[in-house]
Design brief:
Blueprint (H helix, E strand, L loop, with lengths): L3 E3 L2 E4 L5 H17 L16 E6 L2 E5 L2 E5 L13 H10 L8 E7 L5 E4 L11 E7 L1 E6 L9 E5 L4 E4 L8 E7 L11 E7 L3
Antiparallel strand pairs: 1-2, 2-11, 3-6, 4-5, 6-13, 7-12, 8-11, 8-13, 9-10, 9-12
The structure holds succinic acid and fe (ii) ion.
Fe (ii) ion binds next to loops.
């Protein structure tokens, strides 16, 4: 399918086939068995609606102490390795980038959302972030590098990949809502979003 561009956001609809998505979900289940999802709280103590885990050398953590990357899951175990198919995708879509050091796993139940934010806890902001959507569709809002100003939204579907590079790397983005029961990939519904990042 053709690539869709919204400003510097590069959207690849249906990048992963249904079979590839199912195989990836099986790998994610094995990762989550070792590094279970946790419900983060903001530094002010407000619970986030998504639940999170990670793969790779680092996972992104939010708790009372703030936002940061950590080399260990809160339980003290290392994060499992990033699935090979994601490393292959990264090499194909962003060949000039350094290797990803984190695959953040966000789990959205039907009521979960993610407020408009920038991804800026990484040391090298010249490196792209690549996002993979699995399961229920999600309304993805894209802004610019200031919180104010116009935004545009698209529905992301299971198997879609978004590359956030160039001016999109520091653009505000978020998930307004998911559309329950819009995918049969996950037997109990919901959505998984993966974001691959270079951390150091
Ligand atoms: C994120 O910005 O970390 C998540 C985006 C998404 O869920 O598609
Ligand atoms: Fe983000």
């Amino acid at each position: 399918m053709p690539v869709l561009r919204v400003r510097d956001f590069e959207i690849h609809p249906g990048y992963f086939s249904t079979d590839e998505q199912a195989a990836l979900v099986a790998e994610l289940r094995a990762i989550l068995a070792k590094a279970p999802l946790v419900q983060p709280v903001t530094p002010r103590g407000t619970p986030m609606s998504v639940r999170m885990s990670a793969a790779g050398e680092y996972g992104w953590i939010s708790d009372r102490k703030g936002y940061r990357y950590e080399a260990l899951h809160p339980s003290g175990v290392p994060w499992p390795p990033i699935p090979e198919c994601l490393l292959t995708m990264w090499a194909a879509l962003v060949p000039d980038a350094r290797k990803p050091e984190c695959c953040l796993i966000n789990w959205y139940d039907p009521a979960a959302r993610m407020g408009l934010h920038q991804d800026r806890d990484e040391a090298d902001l010249t490196q792209p972030v690549v996002s993979v959507s699995l399961g229920d569709e999600a309304l993805f809002r894209m802004g610019n590098t200031s919180r104010a100003g116009k935004t545009e939204s698209v529905w992301l579907r299971s198997g879609d990949v978004v590359v956030m590079g160039g001016s999109a790397r520091l653009a505000y983005h978020g998930i307004d809502r998911i559309r329950p029961n819009s995918s049969t990939l996950l037997p109990k519904g919901g959505r998984i979003n993966l974001t691959l990042r270079v951390v150091t």
